Amino acid sequence: MRRLETDQKKNIRNIMVLNQNKEKYMKKRIISTALAGVMALSLAACGSSSAPETAAASSAKASSAAAASSSEKSKKEYSMTYIMVRRDEFNSSLESAAKEAAAELGVNLTTQDANSDSSKQLQYIESAANAGEDAVLVGIVDVSTGRECIEAAGDMPIVFINNPLEDNGILEEYDNAVLVASNESEAGQYQGEFLADYFKSQGKTDINYIMICGLNGYTNTIRRT
After folding, report:
1. Least confident interval from 13-27, 119-133, 174-188
2. Alpha-carbon Rg of the chain, whole angstroms?
3. What is the mean pLDDT of residues 125-150?
4. What is the DSSP letter of 169?
5. 159: number of CA atoms within 13 Å, CB side?
6. What pLDDT shows up at residue 193?
7. Facing residues of 110 across strands?
8. Mean pLDDT confidence for 9-23
9. Residue 111 clears pLDDT 90, i.e. is over it
10. pTM for this structure?
């Protein structure tokens, strides 16, 4: 019985490591998409008749933007600021992914920690705009302050990362604001399916469980749950 429990723990640990590797890849992909997207927005701002971005960037758009930004890199060096919600374990991993992606794309990236303070985050956005940054990437602290963040950015492109806004519809009102995030409802579904498949493989159909949620009130937490 003890050997069986040990094997089960090993299986769970191996699966967790695999999922962590997948999560790291997805984080970098989200950040890379965001960086490529804002570079495309910066290029579009130089034009006169580009259509406004109204939704999260797609993979196809990201590839096109990355290709365009690569060809323009020799003409313009990009400088951007990434403002995270707080420097905890998860956001630190996002920060690392952002720095890695920025280095690959030739972007000069500065990171700031809002420390869960929406007022401080707005100040960082304004500072980036006043400093003439090409764009700002924001992991929003308070999802209800999306419009304030966009207004604080002025004409500077702003990309919300990972955390959807309370009302994503406001993005349609601005030419310089986009959201790059994963589908949290789908992520929650995959997690549930994974657990169901695992317990079924162990011959268990009646499960007692405790669900540990993330931060209360966060759109991501609500949708995954």
Report:
1. 13-27
2. 20
3. 94
4. G
5. 29
6. 80
7. 81
8. 48
9. yes
10. 0.62
- 132-168 b/e with 16+ CB inside 10 Å = b? ebbbbbbbbbbbebbbbbbebbeebbbbbbbbbbeeb
Strand order in the sheet with 135-138: 107-113, 78-84, 135-138, 158-161, 177-180
- Residue 201 to residues 5, 137, 194, 195, 198: CA-CA distances in angstroms? 14, 42, 11, 10, 5
Task: Name residue, tokens 């992914």.
Answer: 97
Would the pLDDT of 6 be above 60? no
Tokens of 30: 């989200």
List strand residue ranges (DSSP E) for 56-199, in order.
78-84, 107-113, 135-138, 158-161, 177-180
* Sequence-distant (≥ 6) Cβ neighbours of residue 165 within 8 angstroms: 140, 143, 146, 171, 179, 219
pLDDT confidence tier of residue 116, bands split at 50, 70 and 90 = very high
Angle (nearest 5°) at CA 96 between 33 and 162: 45
Tokens of 2: 């003890």
Using CA atoms, how far residue 13 sits from 4, 18, 20, 124, in Å, is 14, 9, 10, 39
Beta bridge partners of 78: 107
Q: What tokens does 32 get?
A: 């890379």
Buried residues in 116-129 as b, exposed as e (16+ CB within 10 A): eebeebbebbbbbb
- Report the CATH architecture of 21-182: 3-Layer(aba) Sandwich (3.40)
